[in-house]
Amino acid sequence: MSIEEIQNEIVEEFALFDDWMQRYEYMIELGKSLPIIKEQYKTEDNIIKGCQSKVWVHAELEEDKLVFTADSDAIITKGIIAILIRAFSNQKPMDIIEANTDFIDQIGLKEHLSPTRANGLVSMIKQLKLYAIAYQTQLN
After folding, report:
1. How far is the CA of 61 from the CAs of 14, 45, 46, 58, in angstroms?
2. Nearest to residue 101, comparing CAs of 132, 135, 137, 61?
């Protein structure tokens, strides 16, 4: 599936819920299915700066696609990074770089997060794209 197709799928899933409590519960469930980062990668280097909670992200190139793993010490944040990883993991670095993130606004995520969590969300997206840029540079 392309990034856009996955993002559309996420938007459709969130549309099934009537209120934000249900959406938060769904995000917590998504967090539980997150591909967990190996302990050896839970280092200061892999912490996303700008997040209120601790969020670790690791990226590896497998064949020509980036595979992300992550973890967080907060359940909502774990759900947020799980959504982003679902959209961007197992994709080509250039596709990640070029992908838009309008789906975040379509599900209303930013407006339902505290300002510090919304900043953290922006930092997570930025970090995933930075990984993609770094790996794309290696592929060139």
Report:
1. 30, 18, 16, 10
2. 132
- Whole-angstrom distance, CA of residue 80 vs CA of residue 27: 7
Residues with catalytic roles: 51
One pLDDT digit (tens) per residue for the chain, 140 residues: 999 999 999 999 999 998 999 999 999 999 998 888 999 999 999 999 888 899 999 999 999 999 999 999 999 999 999 999 999 999 999 999 999 999 999 998 888 888 888 899 999 999 999 999 999 998 88
Structure tokens at 46: 């892999």
Assess contact for 25 and 13: CB atoms under 8 A: no
Contacts 24+ apart (CB under 8 A), 134-137: 135/59, 135/61, 135/66, 135/93, 136/93, 136/94, 136/97
- What residue type is assigned to position 87 of the chain? A
Give the global pTM: 0.94
Contacts for 8 with CB less than 8 Å, ≥ 6 apart: 103
Whether residue 57 contacts residue 127, with contact meaning beta carbons closer than 8 Å, is answered with yes
